[in-house]
Amino acid sequence: MFEDLRDLYQEVILDHGRHPRHGHRLEAFDATAKGDNPLCGDRIQLWLKYAPDGTIAKAGFEARGCAISIASADLMAEAVTGRTPAQASALSARFRDMARSGIAPDDDPDLAGLRPLSGVHEYPSRVKCATLPWHALVAALDGAQEAGSE
Amino acid sequence: MNVTTKPALLDLARIRADFPILRQSVHGKTLVFLDSAASAMKPRAVIEAMSGAMETQYANVHRGLHWMSERTTEAYEATRDAVAGLIGAPDRHEIVFVRNSTEAINLVAHSYGRGIMKPGQAVVISAMEHHSNIVPWQMLRDAHGIELRIAPITEAGELDMAAFEALLADGRVGLVAITHMSNVLGSYTPAERIAAIAHAHGARVLFDGSQAVVHRRVDVAALGADFYVFTGHKLYGPTGIGVLWGRRELLEAMPPFLGGGDMISSVSYARSTWAQVPHKFEAGTPAILEAIGLSAAIGYVQAIGYEAIAAHEAALTDHALARLSAVEGVRILGRAQDRGGVVSFTLDRAHAHDVATLLDRQGIAIRAGHHCAEPLMHHLGLESTARASFAVYTTHAEIDALADTLARVREFFA
Ligand SMILES: Cc1ncc(COP(=O)(O)O)c(C=O)c1O
Q1: Cα–ligand 1 centroid distance for A53 (angstroms)
Q2: Residue B215 belongs to what H/E stretch?
Q3: Which domains does chain B have, with CATH numbers?
Q4: How far is residue B101's CA from residue B233's CA, in Å, rounded to a whole number?
Q5: Which stretches of chain B score pLDDT less than 50?
Q6: What is the pLDDT of residues B21-51, one digit of tens each?
Q7: What is the CATH number of domain A3-141?
Q8: Is B406 helix (H, G, I), strand (E, B) or coil?
Q9: Is B100 close to ligand 1, i.e. is its CB under 6 Å away?
Q10: Cβ-count burial of B294 within 10 angstroms (0-12 exposed, 13-18 middle, 19+ buried)?
Q11: Alpha carbon of B214 to those of B78, B226, B304, B312, B391: distances in Å?
């Protein structure tokens, strides 16, 4: 049973969904934003701390939501660490494209660690679970308090 | 009221054959539809009544002097009689057609709330309302200086009657608006007692019967209600039609909600006068086909009989409570003594959305989320739950499939 769901719930996703590495608030932070999906009740608060050179030194979040949204937030926190705000924002756009289309170009090494989440595109009602943290990221980078919805 | 005694027996195979959609498969699996509380499937009688009208007998109502319009007006108006019979309304003019429960409650909040209530009065709702019985009262509060009071529920998920009565003690409550059955916890509320207490304190009472009317015979006169609302699509009828029942003297005293055609008696640029109830509240071309569909749905339910429906659903609910509570990690929310066919639960290892997605791949449709009852979720300390809900066509085997599959879902997230 559920064999066809292994594309969506890959081990990485189950693991990060259960044991997020970055699922905590940052006591010292430079930017924060909230993402809300009022239709399903998913919610995330994201915090960013910048390094002296302007790159993202740390990302942390508190979220309530399903395995997909928690895993997406955690993999995102990992993926944006060490990047400039511009790079992180560009990655957010590419991630959201991938989540909607399922297409993760092989020549995009930045997406490598995020590829397990591409399976979500086959579940239209779940795409927003995966993209919510990334909307919060863009809001935090832009200095907005709250993510705009899609 | 039309009381006929029917044996509490229902021919499930025949009933399922009446619902063509139940033969569909989803993801290659037989559909197990356990989301009827959100919207119920439609029997062939409803489908055929609506397409039959479009094919043979249709025109606008209340305005044509031709045969088609007259016949269509008769069919539309016959639905008013059917609804009056269904809920025991003493007078067919007390039945107002609206789009759904939400619109019915908004109508009362506007026309009774702003039109009749005075700033400084209060409205009491309960802690287990659907957003549609919260937000209109908040809007009334903010626009008209009405206080909004929330009657708490007990730990079992029943209305706390002592606390409810205490909220009315100061005599400032003008209206009590409470669900007749919770769409999350399944609890029925003791409508007769609520109405008696409300009246003893000088308040009117509205019941949100969106869920209640699906599962049991409702008699608005016996309940002592002042307003009763429900929505057609949960009662095996089409979307786009709902019902407000109100006592005639209240409806007559209330100003209209929407203005336009059909609701007037005369119009000049200086002033217009209103039509008699219920037409005063039915502005514009109504949901003609949907009313015809609702009539067929009511006929369908009455032919089976509420006794049989209630007995079937009570057995299903008992079975579901027993089967689901035996699944490790499942926690059932609410244990009201008096409940209908709705069971909300959580699974320890997985979020309700993940549960719903896994079940869906096995063809099992449940609802997951906050069920348009965020304040209740907050009270329960939850962000979302899974919910299985039952209808006249639900089988014990479907509940077994849910319970068995839930155990596998839990293993998946081990
Ligand atoms: C208890 C209750 N009240 C009100 C509603 C609103 O019904 P509708 O959306 O048809 O207006 C629902 C259905 O979602 C409900 O379950």
Answers
A1: 54
A2: helix B212-215
A3: 12-42+305-412 (3.90.1150.10), 47-302 (3.40.640.10)
A4: 10
A5: 1-7
A6: 999 999 999 999 999 999 999 999 999 999 9
A7: 3.90.1010.10
A8: helix
A9: yes
A10: buried
A11: 20, 20, 12, 13, 8
Q: Which strands sit side by side in the sheet containing A56-64, from one edge to the other? A: A31-37, A42-50, A56-64
Has B91 been annotated as catalytic?
no
What CA–CA distances, in Å, run from A113 to A67, A71, A108, B220, B276? 17, 12, 10, 61, 68
Q: Is the dihedral of CA A99, A102, A105, A109 positive or negative?
A: positive
- Residue B275 is which amino acid? A
User: How much is the mean pLDDT over chain B?
Assistant: 95
Q: Around Cβ B408, how many Cβ atoms within 10 Å?
A: 14
Cα–Cα distance list, B188 to B46, B306, B378, B383 (Å): 28, 16, 20, 23
- What residues does each domain of chain A span? 3-141
Select from A39, A64, A67 the Cβ nearest to the Cβ of B354: A67
* Neighbouring C-beta atoms of residue A54, cutoff 10 Å: 10
For the CA atoms of B325, B331, B334, B340, the dihedral, rounded to the nearest 10 degrees, stands at -50
Q: Which of residues 12-31 of B touch A (CB under 8 A)?
A: 27
Helix A67-80 and helix A85-101, axial crossing angle in degrees, nearest 10? 150
Reported as a single tens digit per residue, the pLDDT across B236-288 is: 999 999 999 999 999 999 999 999 988 989 999 999 999 999 999 999 999 99
Please state the pTM of the whole predicted model: 0.93
